[in-house]
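Notes, p. 3: input format for complexes.
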Amino acid sequence: MSRRRRVFEGKAKVLYEGPEPGTLIQHFKDDTTALNNQKQATIEGKGVLNNRISEFIFSRLNEIGVPTHFIRAINMREQLIREVEIIPCEVVVRNVAAGSLSTRLGIEEGTLLPRSIIEFYYKSDELSHPMVSEEHITAFGWSTPQEIDDMMALGLRINDFLTGLFLGIGIRLVDFKIEFGRLYEGDMVRVILADEISPDSCRLWDIRTNDKLDKDRFRRDMGGLIEAYQEVARRLGILFENEPKRRGPTLVK
Ligand code: UDP
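Output follows (253 residues plus uridine-5'-diphosphate):
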């Protein structure tokens, strides 16, 4: 057996060459970082949970016609994805004030925003992912105005879908970060959702208690990260690989 070729290694994931041209294998590690890599840890089991949660969400998004890179699950830590050219702009969608928005604008965490807000951040570790405007993005050629429109429209659609999905299981979707990629098909190119959607990239608060069920538990040294991610997976109905009956989300009344 030959060794797989590693195409890219990030902070929490590794990409390997896929079985066919145009495909990759996305592997979820247990590593985690925060505060621009100043804080690092390995949390056993995190990769398995994020793979499972992200796979579930991307499958549902594919089903409702949101184009994503997800093709199929491979194993507990890996999924087969389409190879795309990542657009170097992270898209953050917010429903409730938290994190950097609260710090920057002095809005108390937990304040419901008057409408969903979309922000763009330039994907550069050296620059610590600065927030940028559409002007910067188009002037520096990171993406075209059409791609920005597509990312915003898809971002809002994903937000509506996920808000409802999580609300049904007693979780408030406060905000999340997504990334998009260009998929080349012949002489056509289109924007599709890439990367992951998991408690590493979302803020998820329990509706009743406001308990944090996301990566803020690591960022803010709260402990209990795995238990929180397991709770999200459990409520989504996807905690175990070989559950006798996988019924999907359990409604919380
Ligand atoms: N986020 C992320 N990766 C990043 C920065 C942010 O996944 O590199 C997510 C984060 O989990 C949250 C949302 O994007 O759900 C908004 O994060 P924010 O700008 O408030 O930054 P933070 O407070 O995490 O530094």
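The chain has a mean pLDDT of 95.
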